[in-house]
Amino acid sequence: MAVGSRRQWFRRRGDLAWTVSWIVGGYFGALLVGILFAQLMRSTGNWDQGLAWERALLIRTHVRFPEPFDTLMLVLPWLGTNITLLPLVAAVSLWLLVRRKRPDLAAHLVTVQLGSLTLNALLKDIFDRPRPELFEQRGQHAWAAFPSGHAIASISVLLTVAILLRRERGWSWPMRAAVVLLIISLYSRLYLGVHWPTDIVGGVLVGLLWLAATYTAFRRPPVPERAMGAGGEPAPVAES
N or C: which end of the chain has fewer CB within 10 A? Predict the structure, then answer.
């Protein structure tokens, strides 16, 4: 794909409708999945106070790591939360827009971040699930338990950044780093006693759907072969 054509993706006929359709559909699809998952879990027992297997799992697996690893569990999750990612994404997107002239990448990042932030807020407000009180809650935790905002943000935002770096720069290490950070971040929410296991699962489901929808939204829509001109670019459309 030529650089010029990639930067002009939003000027071709049908691109805007493709992008908006996937963003809107993906957003409400992710919201619906979060709602249905929570309702399903709620129907199986006293979900608001933790299902029996959740309580048993947290109690059986509760440990306290030595100081260096315990500090790691407290610090690393800050790299995968909306509180940290929102200003970083805003700054990077502004740089991409103003200095690099890449509105496509800026729009992609801003859309993913805003979706991550608002999906988390809406679902927390809808269900208002209390956080576990089985042992001391440590680290960053505010608002309701479900879903895990770290799960949504780490999956949708961090993996989007890794995907874009692989596509634009050919770098594969950001994806490996993002996956490692994701695993540590998700485990840390249980380790620190601030989430139930189903909070994590629900956040993962919402994050994956939002990641897939936004990735598809900002890809170039397929162009029929007969509409392709020389060099693989869309043929110009005659004005009526």
Answer: C
Q: Are 159 and 175 in contact (CB under 8 A)?
A: yes
The DSSP bridge partners found for residue 234 are 228
**Torsion angle of the four alpha carbons 99, 101, 107, 113, in this order, in degrees rounded to the nearest 10:** -20
Query: What DSSP string describes 53-103?
Result: HHHHHHHHH-----HHHHHHHHHGGGGGSHHHHHHHHHHHHHHHHHTS--H
Domain boundaries, the chain: 10-221
pLDDT, residue 138, reads 75
Instruction: Specify whether the CB–CB gap between 131 and 195 falls below 8 A.
Output: yes
pLDDT at 139: 62
Whether the Cβ atoms of residue 158 and residue 178 lie closer than 8 Å to each other: yes
Which residue has 């900002």 as its token pair? 218
Q: Is 140 exposed, middle or buried (0-12, 13-18, 19+ CB in 10 A)?
A: middle
Name residue 228's beta-bridge partners: 234
Q: pTM to 2 decimals?
A: 0.84
What are the tens digits of pLDDT across the range 66-83?
A: 888 888 888 888 887 888
CA torsion 157-163-168-172 (nearest 10°) is 120
Q: Which residue has the tokens 């054509």?
A: 5
CA 37 to chain centre: 17
Q: Which residues of the chain have pLDDT under 70?
A: 1-14, 137, 139-140, 220-240
Q: How far is the C-alpha of 212 from the C-alpha of 168, rounded, in Å?
A: 18
